[in-house]
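// run 5 | inverse folding | seed 20
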């Protein structure tokens, strides 16, 4: 037995002697005596590598060794490392080399390297043949020639913002995981695939801008990883911006996401079923060219108000149901309010029973059969000056109704029992001063508890008008102007604005 053990040790001695570890000028190498090559390995110690590291093309230790490799995790978890320069002799770089290097600002590959480059002073390592960005750092600017972002490329870096160019087609798993300082990211239009946990534990990610139609418009299965799941570990996303290249939002695209605010470009025309279902959305700016909102699209969100653009043709059932905070709804689409032929379709079936106030835009000409029926908590409705007809049982069982503000000077025609079983006999009908007597003498309208003249303080229907630049103004004088989030300004700005005109009307302005 002793003879066998001696023989085994004797056979292993040449192997053990062929590779040794040695620190030379502050860099730890594994030296291969047989091949006369060296690979950079992790530096043991409390802080590991610090400051600026310049890896030489060769080292001397009782002979010259060519530096050809960087080992797995060679520089990982070195928070004081600030820059690394890699010689053109290095032809192999391992995995997770810079994980957790939160102060790393510069990565340079010397020119002439056959496998890697740092083209355009990008401060990154790019696979020359593949055009894949393998490793980045705080100072990385991704060149337009890059077509993919590699696995764990920025894992644990201190990067604060990043733009994924429009030429990139794929982002691999964990690419930006644990980037604690990352606050903004732009995802370009050509991205077709994104891996798992790409933004996991990005605790300070505030704004995400997505311009990839392939990613956003895809219809996802309720149980599969979707766009929203990319940000599952990012808890503080305040704003999702859906860019101009996106034309639709697919089924379940952002279901159960933690995103709190969404702004979409006017190129989005449809929102799929359950697109934002059970998400944490408290604010959403819908596209002004949106035509269709799918079933359950915003079910269970945290919205308090929502404005439906004039372009919308259909809001499918339960789109905003179970939004417990949703108390005010503004509808500018005549198709939505005047929809006929569906005995189960009501605004309540779309928005829920908790809504307290509806404001109908100037484009609304007809209120359909049972449109507001069973809106149990509805207290106030504003009707436009262009309203001509209110169909049967439109306000059936609106038991909390206290005020209707109707700006139609000519009394709208009515169907049967439009206010049956509602609270209208105890409510106030506000109408133009010149039309008070006409309403008092018209069937059904005359049965309101109180009929009074409208005042300047009463809520007004909103009219959407378009402006192409912030410098252009409507034909009448603007006396007050606010951004859509309520901030008062002096002139309309890009995006959504609310303005009060000199004639007393309130208008919604979309500034292009």
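// decoded
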């Amino acid at each position: 037995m002793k003879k066998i053990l001696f023989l085994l040790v004797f056979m292993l001695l040449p192997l053990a002697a062929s590779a040794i570890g040695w620190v030379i000028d502050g860099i730890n190498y594994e030296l291969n005596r047989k091949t006369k090559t060296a690979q950079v390995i992790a530096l043991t110690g409390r802080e590991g590598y610090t400051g600026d590291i310049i890896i030489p093309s060769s080292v001397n230790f009782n002979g010259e060794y060519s530096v050809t490799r960087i080992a797995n995790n060679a520089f990982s978890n070195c928070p004081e490392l600030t820059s690394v320069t890699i010689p053109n002799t290095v032809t192999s770089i391992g995995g997770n080399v810079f994980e957790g290097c939160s102060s790393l600002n510069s990565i340079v590959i010397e020119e002439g390297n056959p496998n890697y480059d740092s083209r355009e002073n990008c401060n990154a390592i790019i696979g020359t043949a593949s055009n894949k960005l393998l490793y980045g750092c705080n100072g990385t600017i991704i060149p337009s020639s890059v077509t993919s972002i590699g696995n764990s490329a920025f894992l644990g870096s201190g990067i604060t913002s990043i733009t994924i160019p429009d030429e990139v087609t794929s982002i691999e798993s964990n690419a930006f995981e644990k980037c604690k300082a990352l606050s903004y990211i732009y995802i370009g239009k050509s991205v077709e695939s994104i891996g798992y946990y790409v933004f996991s534990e990005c605790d300070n990610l505030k704004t995400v801008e997505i311009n990839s139609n392939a990613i956003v418009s895809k219809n996802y299965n309720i149980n599969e990883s979707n766009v929203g799941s990319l940000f599952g570990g990012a808890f503080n996303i305040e704003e999702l911006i859906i860019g101009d290249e996106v034309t639709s939002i697919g089924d379940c695209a952002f279901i159960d996401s933690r995103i709190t605010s969404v702004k979409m470009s006017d190129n989005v025309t449809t929102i799929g079923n359950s697109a934002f279902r059970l998400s944490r959305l408290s604010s959403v700016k819908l596209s002004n060219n949106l035509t269709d909102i799918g079933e359950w699209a915003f079910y269970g969100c945290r919205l308090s108000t929502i404005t439906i653009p004039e372009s919308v043709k259909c809001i499918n059932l339960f789109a905003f149901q179970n939004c417990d905070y949703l108390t005010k709804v503004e509808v500018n689409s005549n198709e939505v309010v005047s929809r006929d032929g569906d005995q189960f379709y009501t605004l309540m079936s779309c928005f829920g029973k908790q809504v307290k106030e509806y404001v109908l835009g100037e484009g609304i000409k007809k209120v359909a059969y049972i449109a507001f029926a069973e809106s149990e908590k509805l207290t106030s409705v504003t009707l436009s000056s262009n309203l001509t007809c209110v169909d049967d049982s439109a306000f059936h069982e609106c038991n909390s109704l206290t005020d209707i503000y109707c700006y139609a000077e000519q009394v709208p025609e009515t169907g049967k029992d439009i206010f049956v079983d509602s609270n209208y006999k105890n409510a106030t009908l506000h109408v133009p001063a010149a039309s008070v007597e006409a309403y008092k003498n018209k069937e059904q309208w005359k049965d309101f508890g109180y009929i009074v003249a409208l005042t300047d303080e009463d809520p007004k229907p909103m009219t959407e008008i378009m402006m192409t630049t912030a410098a252009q103004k409507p034909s009448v004088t603007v006396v007050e102007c606010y951004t859509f989030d309520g901030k008062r300004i002096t002139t309309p700005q890009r995006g959504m604005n609310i303005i009060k005109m000199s004639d007393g009307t309130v208008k919604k302005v979309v500034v292009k």
